[in-house]
Amino acid sequence: MTNQQSLAIAARFDRLPPSRTVWTMVMLISLGGVFEFYDLFFTGYVAPGMVQSGLFKPESLGIFAALAPIAVAGFGTFVFATFAGLWLGTLVFGFVADRFGRRFIFTWSLVWYVVCTAIMAFQHTGQAINLWRLVAGIGIGVELVTIDSYISELIPSAERGRAYAVNQFITFCVVPLVAFLAFILKDTHPFGLEYWRVVILIGTLGAAFVWIIRRNVPESPRWLARQGRVDEAERIVADIEQRVEAEKGIKLPPPQPVGNQIEGSGTFAEIFGPLYIKRTVLLSIFNMAQAIGFYGFAAWVPTLLISRGVHVTTSLQYAFIIAIANPFGPLLGTLFADKIERKTQISGGLLIMGIVIALFSQASAPALLIVLGVLFTLAANVMSYAYHGYQAELFPTRVRARAVGFVYSWSRLAVAFAGLAIGVLLHKYGVPGVAVFIGACMVIGICMILLGPSTKGRSLESISH
Asked: For residue 301, what pLDDT is reported?
């Protein structure tokens, strides 16, 4: 494989016009992501049922009772296990998509966490639930990293931002579904099972679709070329070109140069080398900051509403209404995702999140709380799709998955411990204390992103150079 062959394949991709062929790939990959988001977001909605089952009493937690010295107790051990698994998946196993390919890992990490989650749903002790949750979390973490890398490499540069917006619109559609299922099934026993077990099992139905999705999504030609499998890459690109030409009724123009690409070691150490160390550090700090705001609100919204004087049952109804807003942030982003610089979208989202959480901490009227919750959710999800695309753009194909896995892992670690901080702040200072904490994190996130490079309309190869 020569560097020129790899660049030629990239140039052929970047000159593809908008087409059903390309967007079908985005949607199929996104459908794979739906099941992780379901798995990721059911945590807050099944919590009441799991606690009522007595799973998280000290005598049921086994080895997880040892977390008590760091103030992790009860259902908090489940949250800790979730994000510990995500952290291991993104940090320790993020490299596997660089080693074995995007398509292979996209498929098998999905199967991994679906099987583990199904097993988890039938456990009857807190220790067993948490152990299977941790193992399932590894698969979810790997899948999230793989999808970010996969989309960036299959989509022309002019449409990359919108591709991430569409991806997250599709995946976030499942969040209100989780909230709705938990709300209508609460205190029922479908099929003789506790409602929370059914909510969890519904998410595992993704296993039935994984092979269909896999058959219709090709391996990343950019990854194949980097592995020296140029003939395979050529066949995939030629097939996509033929389908696009037939669909659009045009002859594609000659590819334009996408710039040079510096050769590197392709090892984990490269992301700490002189070319990428700044990006690695900035994105690691950013991920810690943004995750505290994003998950700090999403996971705690029912509790925050209760702290503002809303009744516990009503708070679940309000949380469901707020959850409905999740897909609409990325949907809104499809209008400007490739027209506005990615850094501006991320910083703008963080700024709005900081302002809205401050207003939320002072509000008490139910209607105003809902409006502010919806605004926060919209801003958070615009920020989310933009940064998922941005961090995948900043590293070369040879280390993209492991780099994204490393910087993303800090968000998992931050959330695992931020929950403790939010709980303490909520107890001592109420919602205003939580708002100050989240607001400060948003400022840190903005500062980090503003120091990064611009990416709008640029090829992956020129950005990584």
From this structure: 64
